[in-house]
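Chapter summary example.
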Amino acid sequence: MPLLLSNRQPDLVEFMDREDCDPLLLENTYRQFETINRLLSGWRRIYRNEIRPLLQKDQPNTLLDIGFGGGDVPVRLANWAKKDDFDLQITAIETDARAFEFVNKNRNGSPVQFQYLSSTELVEEGKKYDFVISNHVLHHLGSRQTEQLLNEAELLSQKKVIFNDIERSDAGYFLFSSFTPLLFRKSFIVKDGLISIKRSYTRPELQAVAPSGWTVKRQFPFRLLLIHEK
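The structure predicted for these 230 residues follows.
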């Protein structure tokens, strides 16, 4: 358990979540998500260990990404699957119109279908996907929102759900505050990243709020995977 960050701080608000935030800094943040995710989010390992073993060669596979942000994660997943000769059809959804505008301008021609809608709407439509994933969404949510989203993810998934998020720790906070100012400028990456760490769960905290049937795995560096398998 962390000492300096012993208590989660879910009431903090990230700069990019504010409606009046600087649009140029926000756009740079969406663009720089690709770099920070490559460095820290570990999706290559998640794809290799959690998704690829369940992909089928003889039929289309489907994946839903909830809260796509800058859109880099689903695009990379699609490219990895194509390289491995799998037909992985990816739908990525977002409820922030600014993120949707960003991908429309910057992700044209990608193999991912980006949509401006919510997981609730997909549940109401009766949609189903082999996999449901999300990156850095859980720490943004209140307890009721978390409960609702996890329930909807279960309903939408036919094989596996993977929520990838930060594990709150003193060491992670110190390291992030030390190296990110050298790499990320003119964006909200540094300020919001530090707020995100303060808002994030420890492994025992996340396991405590997870419904029955969900498991929490640690992944280097300072990551938590909340997983539900059918």
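To summarize the output: The chain has a mean pLDDT of 97.
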